[in-house]
TrEMBL record:
Species of the source: Pantoea coffeiphila
Compartments it resides in: Cell membrane
Keyword terms: Cell membrane, Membrane, Transmembrane, Transmembrane helix
Lineage: superkingdom: Bacteria
Protein name: Lipopolysaccharide biosynthesis protein
Main location: membrane
Length: 448
């Protein structure tokens, strides 16, 4: 371990993860407070409806979302290293344009499909209007240009600040809604205002950093001209969009699908279990967000980024074991205290889902390594297989085992995800000598 930490890149990953972790710890605690107030302040059915609406808008935004932050890191980081300022501006402009168009189309689609969801979950006319209002957040939820800018400029501290402010506002509003008995309307308005403010703050941070670094006029949307100057841009954004749309939407759609199959009460229980599972996987998520920008500074043909990935995976796996053991010990009393005895069934789901924590955490470097190697199409294929397997399990198992079946399906889906991505990662490592720096430009060639 002493040798590991002598590696400057490894120390940078840990440092940036610590920045994000400071915000995520606060976010997790405040998120639990908000969910606790919502669970106690409403009936299980209305709590489930609130969760389904929130999950629905996230699923729509995830499905349409271009992973522009990855595009900025993949194309913008080499431009910064080589001090090619015009290329960096083109990367930002192209990313911004994609966010605007995809976000607007996603919002329209979400509003059009909402009446169908309302009929399925039993949303009345008054609450339907509030759900329709919530759909206007989709363009902001579907944009990741600010994240890419701040990660590329190494301002993980600002990301941590933004990640702490949103749950703080949600928690404060949820406490007010609980004590003043504002009901469903109070909670959904609180979540709407908090998400709106936090998203706009992200954009402000990014614009300020660009000005501070003298990247003037960079934050202007563009399509045709920037794309012409960025060879391989469309190939990268479409491929990563499809793979992440499948991965992200499947997770967001899980709660919606459980609500459709088993009803809003089961959806609420599944959401609580998912919240705990996501919290246990936070270390891997933080390492991933700092790992990808760092390896893009390295030569993919050398062993260094691959060794860095292995060390990061082992570290994440060790943390995962400790976190899983902690959840086993404190999970049941925590749920009883935070949400109440009526939601205690969620602990049974958590016990099943914890089996996938260590596996998913150890597998986090695979996506970044495949993107670095220009294998985004391969990753897309693997994600498609894993997601299709998971959705099939999620449709079948709840019919036979109820809500606990959804937990088994989620466990299987996480295992499929890591296993299917491991195969091409090992292949890319064995053939790393054929890779070159900034393989994103020649991704299409490398995929053949």
């Amino acid at each position: 371990m002493k040798k590991w930490f002598s590696d400057g890149a490894f120390r940078t990953i840990i440092r940036n993860s610590a920045y994000l972790g400071s915000g995520n710890v606060v976010s997790a605690l405040l998120g639990l407070l908000a969910l606790s107030c919502a669970g106690r302040g409403m009936s299980p059915e209305m709590f489930g409806i609130l969760i389904v609406i929130q999950s629905y808008t996230k699923a729509v935004s995830d499905f349409a979302k271009f992973q522009t932050w990855q595009f900025i890191v993949q194309f913008g980081m080499p431009a910064l290293v080589s001090k090619n300022i015009q290329r960096f501006r083109d990367v930002i402009a192209f990313s911004f344009g994609l966010d605007i168009v995809s976000g607007a189309l996603a919002m329209l689609a979400g509003m059009i499909l909402l009446p169908w969801l309302s009929d399925v979950i039993g949303l009345d006319a008054e609450n339907f209007k509030l759900a329709l209002l919530y759909c206007t957040l989709i363009p902001l939820m579907a944009s990741s240009t600010p994240t890419g800018i701040l990660r590329t400029l190494d301002r993980f501290d600002l990301i941590a600040v933004q990640q702490a402010i949103k749950p703080l506002m949600i928690a404060i509003g949820s406490v007010i809604s609980y004590f003043f008995q504002l009901g469903f309307a109070g909670f959904i308005v609180t979540w709407f205002v908090s998400n709106l403010f936090a998203s706009l703050l992200f954009w402000w941070f990014s614009a300020r950093e660009l000005r501070r670094k003298n990247f003037h006029k960079a934050l202007r949307p563009g399509f045709i001209e920037p794309a012409r100057r960025l060879s391989g841009a469309w190939n990268f954004v479409w491929t990563t969009n499809l793979s992440h749309s499948i991965w992200s939407a499947r997770n967001s759609c899980s709660t919606v699908l459980v609500g459709i199959i088993l009803g809003p009460v089961a959806a609420g229980l599944f959401k609580i279990a998912m919240t705990v599972f996501d919290a246990t996987g936070t270390p891997a998520s933080l390492l991933s967000k700092s790992f990808y920008p760092e390896i893009m500074r390295l030569d993919p043909a050398s062993k260094r980024p691959w060794v860095l990935g292995l060390r990061s995976a082992l570290l994440a796996g060790a943390i995962g074991i400790l976190v899983a053991l902690l959840v086993v010990v404190v999970g049941k009393p925590l749920i009883s205290f935070v949400f109440g005895i009526k939601y205690l069934e969620a602990y049974d789901l958590i016990q099943v889902m914890l089996g996938a924590v260590v596996i998913s955490m150890m597998g986090f470097p695979q996506e970044s390594l495949l993107l670095m190697a220009g294998k985004q199409r391969t990753y897309l294929v693997m994600q498609t297989f894993a997601s299709a397997s998971y959705i099939a399990l999620l449709i079948v198992l709840p019919h036979f085992f109820g809500v606990i079946g959804a937990a088994y399906a989620y466990f299987g889906g996480q295992c499929f995800d890591v296993l299917f991505s491991l195969i091409p990662t090992l292949w890319a490592y064995r053939h790393r000598s054929s890779l070159s720096v900034n393989t994103s430009v020649g991704a299409s060639k490398n995929e053949q």
